[in-house]
Design brief:
This protein has about 575 residues and is α/β, with parallel strands linked by helices. It has two domains: about 260 residues, 3-Layer(aba) Sandwich (Rossmann fold), CATH 3.40.50.450; about 200 residues, Phosphofructokinase domain (Rossmann fold), CATH 3.40.50. It is built from 23 helices and 16 strands. Strands 1, 2, 3, 4, 5, 6, 7, 8, 13 and 14 form a ten-stranded mixed β-sheet that branches. Strands 10-11-9-12 form a four-stranded parallel β-sheet, sandwiched between helices. α4 links the parallel β3 and β4. α4 packs across α20, α9 packs across α10 and α12 crosses α19.
C-alpha cells in the first residue's frame, strides 16, 4: 500500500550545505555494480552453538564469505529489480545515507530499478505500508541525521502470522530483495526472514546493514557499526563541556550515564576523547565479580582522595548497562526476566506497580528477593518495567547514576563519622542518550553509511541472501576500503530471551585484553588525580582532513594504531 509523503524536509543552512556533500566511494564500487564480481570464500560456521544454529537455519547456515573484486558483471543490469528497505530499531546517524547509497547503486546498475521504503520499521512490511524512494524524494535527506524519511520501529517479525504476512506482501509488491538496516537483534530477525523465505521457496534476497550507536555489532568483518562515530563525538562534546565547567566552578561531582545497553564501548570512546576522573566499564565489573557495594566503595575512595587534595569536584562516566554487568544484579535481572515472562497473564491483571512488585518478590529466591528489597524504591520499580520486543530490560529507563549518587551519599556520611572523609559532596546527574541518535553524521559516518548502502545494492543485485553488508579496512583512506558480505549465521549464538533459548547475533563486548581497554588502564590513574580534561568541541564538517575525517580512537587502537 503506497503512502504519500512530503518530498522535502525542513533544512537548516548547515543541512543545505551537507546535502551537497558527495560521499567518497571505495574504489571497488566507483564504476558501478556492473564492474563488480562476487568472490566466494570458504564455508563459514557460527561463532558458537554450531549444531543448534545450523538446525534452526538449515537453508542459510554455512554460506561463504563474499569479497567484491573487479570484473565484468553485466548480467545484473539486464532485468529491472524492485528492492525494499526498512529501518529497524533505534535511530543512528547515517541511516539516510544508507538509503541514498542503496538507491544510487540500484540506479547505476539500471535506471529502471526501483527502491521502496517500508514505513515505521518492520511493521510496515507486515502492514504493507511503503513509499517509493525516488532521487527527488531522497535529495533533501542526503547526509542528514535521523530516520524521518521512512521512520523506524521495533516490531519483531517472528510469529507464523507475521512471517506469512511479510512474505505475502513482499511477493505482492514484486520485491526482488529486502534490505534490513538494524542492530544485532534486527539483523537476527533479518536472518529469520531470509531462512523463512528460503524454506518457502521464495526467491527474495534478504540483506542486513550493521547499525547501532552502541558499537556492539562488530567483528573482524564488521569493524564498526554505523552511527558509533557520530554519536560518540556528540556525547564527547557534551562531556567535554561539563569537564570545562567542572574545571571552572570546582564544586560539583558530575555523574554522566551514557548510551550503551549491553556493552561499554561508548563510555570507553568518550573517555578517550575527554579524560574524565573515573570511568566505569561494565565488562570489567563483571570480570572482577564486583558487587554494587564494591563499585560504590571504589568511587568513595576516589572522592575522598580528591577531597584531601582540595578537589571536591570531578567527572564520572557510567555506561547505561552497568547494572546488568554487576553479577548480583545480572542474576536478579535474569530471574526477573523469567518471572515476568512466565507470569505475564497474571501480571497484566494487576493495576499497580506495588502489587506487581509484591507478586514477583514472592516468586524470587530468598537471596534475590532480599537484594530487590534493599534497592531504592525507584530503582526497584524501574527494574520491573516492561521488556522491549526482544525481551531486554529497558536499561535506558534505569537511573543508575542516581542510584550511585544516593549510595555514595550514605557511604561518604559513614566515612565522615570515622574521619576518613572531610570533603563536601555535591552531585549532579546526567543521561546522554537520545541526544546522540539523530545527529548530522560525521564525514566518516556519511562515507561509511553511503558505502554500506551501495554495497548492499550490489549484494541484492547478485542475489546474495542471508548476508550482512560488510565494508572494512576502515582506518585506511575511504577509496581503499574493502567491500563484500558476511553470512548472518556466522555471527550467531544461542542466548536466553524471554525465558527461552533463542538464536541471536552475539554482541561484541569491550575486550579487557584488547588494546582500547589497555589504553584506559594505562591512563586512568593519571586522569583520576590530575585534571587533564580534554574539550573536543563539536563535530567539524569543514576544514582540514585531519579534523573532518577523523574516526574513533577505539577503531584506531583495535587496528594497531597509536594514540596520545
Amino acid at each position: 500500500m503506497s503512502t504519500k509523503r512530503a518530498a522535502k524536509c525542513n533544512c537548516s543552512q548547515l543541512q543545505q550545505h551537507r546535502c551537497k556533500f558527495q560521499p567518497v566511494l571505495p574504489n571497488i564500487l566507483k564504476k558501478g555494480p556492473a564492474c563488480v564480481k562476487a568472490k566466494a570464500g570458504k564455508a563459514t560456521k557460527s561463532v558458537a552453538d554450531q549444531a543448534a544454529v545450523k538446525r534452526i537455519f538449515p537453508n542459510t547456515y554455512g554460506l561463504p564469505e563474499i569479497t567484491f573484486v573487479k570484473g565484468a558483471n553485466s548480467a545484473i543490469t539486464k532485468k529491472a529489480v524492485r528492492v525494499g528497505v526498512v529501518l529497524s530499531g533505534g535511530q543512528a546517524p547515517g541511516g539516510h545515507n544508507v538509503i541514498g547509497g542503496l538507491l544510487d547503486g540500484l540506479k547505476k546498475a539500471n535506471p529502471k530499478n526501483k527502491l521502496f521504503g517500508f514505513l515505521g520499521g518492520p511493521s510496515g512490511i507486515v502492514d504493507n505500508k511503503w513509499v517509493e524512494i525516488t532521487p527527488a524524494l531522497m535529495k533533501d535527506y542526503r547526509n542528514t541525521g535521523g530516520f524521518d524519511l521512512i521512520q523506524s520501529g521495533r516490531t519483531k517479525i517472528e510469529t507464523d502470522e507475521q512471517l506469512k504476512s511479510a512474505k505475502d506482501n513482499l511477493i505482492a509488491n514484486k520485491m526482488d530483495a529486502l534490505v534490513v538496516v538494524g542492530g544485532d537483534d534486527s539483523n537476527t530477525n533479518a536472518c529469520v526472514i531470509a531462512e523463512y523465505l528460503k524454506q518457502q521457496g521464495v526467491d527474495i534476497s534478504v540483506i542486513g546493514v550493521p547499525k547501532t550507536i552502541d558499537g556492539d555489532l562488530k567483528n573482524k568483518q564488521i569493524e564498526t557499526s554505523f552511527g558509533f562515530d557520530t554519536a560518540t563525538k556528540i556525547y564527547a562534546e557534551l562531556v567535554g563541556n561539563i569537564c570545562r565547567d567542572v574545571n571552572s566552578a570546582r564544586k560539583y561531582w558530575h555523574f554522566i550515564r551514557l548510551m550503551g545497553r549491553s556493552a561499554s564501548h561508548i563510555t570507553l570512546e568518550v573517555a578517550f576523547k575527554t579524560h574524565p576522573n573515573a570511568v566505569l566499564i561494565g565488562e570489567e565489573v563483571l570480570a572482577k565479580k564486583m558487587t554494587l557495594g564494591q563499585v560504590v566503595d571504589n568511587l568513595a575512595q576516589l572522592i575522598a582522595k580528591r577531597a584531601k587534595a582540595g578537589k571536591n569536584f570531578g567527572v564520572v562516566l557510567v555506561p547505561e548497562g552497568l547494572i546488568e554487568f554487576i553479577p548480583e544484579m545480572k542474576e536478579l535481572i535474569s530471574a526477573l526476566n523469567d518471572s515476568l515472562a512466565d507470569n505475564e497473564a497474571e501480571l497484566s491483571k494487576m493495576a499497580s506497580v506495588a502489587e506487581k512488585k509484591a507478586f514477583i518478590l514472592s516468586k524470587l529466591p530468598a537471596k534475590l528477593s532480599d537484594l530487590m528489597k534493599s534497592l531504592p524504591d525507584g530503582i526497584a520499580s524501574q527494574l520491573m518495567l516492561d521488556r522491549d520486543p526482544h525481551g531486554n530490560v529497558q536499561v535506558s529507563l534505569i537511573e543508575t547514576e542516581k542510584l550511585l549518587v544516593e549510595m555514595l551519599r550514605t557511604k561518604l556520611a559513614e566515612m565522615k563519622k570515622t574521619g576518613k572523609y572531610n570533603g563536601k559532596f555535591s552531585a549532579i546527574t546526567h543521561f546522554f542518550g537520545y541526544e546522540g541518535r539523530c545527529g548530522v553524521p560525521s564525514t566518516f559516518d556519511a562515507n561509511y553509511t553511503y558505502a554500506l548502502g551501495y554495497n548492499a545494492a550490489v549484494l541484492a543485485l547478485n542475489k546474495c541472501s542471508g548476508y550482512l553488508s560488510s565494508v572494512r579496512k576502515l582506518t585506511k583512506k575511504t577509496q581503499d576500503w574493502e567491500c563484500g558480505g558476511i553470512p548472518l549465521t556466522m555471527m550467531m549464538n544461542i542466548e536466553r530471551r524471554k525465558g527461552k533459548e533463542k538464536p541471536v547475533i552475539k554482541k561484541a563486548l569491550v575486550e579487557l585484553k584488547g588494546e582500547p581497554f589497555k589504553h584506559l588502564a594505562k591512563n586512568r590513574t593519571i586522569w583520576a588525580g590530575a585534571d587533564v580534561y580534554v574539550f573536543p568541541g563539536p563535530i567539524q564538517f569543514f576544514g582540514p582532513a585531519e579534523i573532518t575525517d577523523m574516526t574513533t580512537y577505539t577503531l584506531l587502537l583495535e587496528q594497531g594504531k597509536k594514540i596520545k
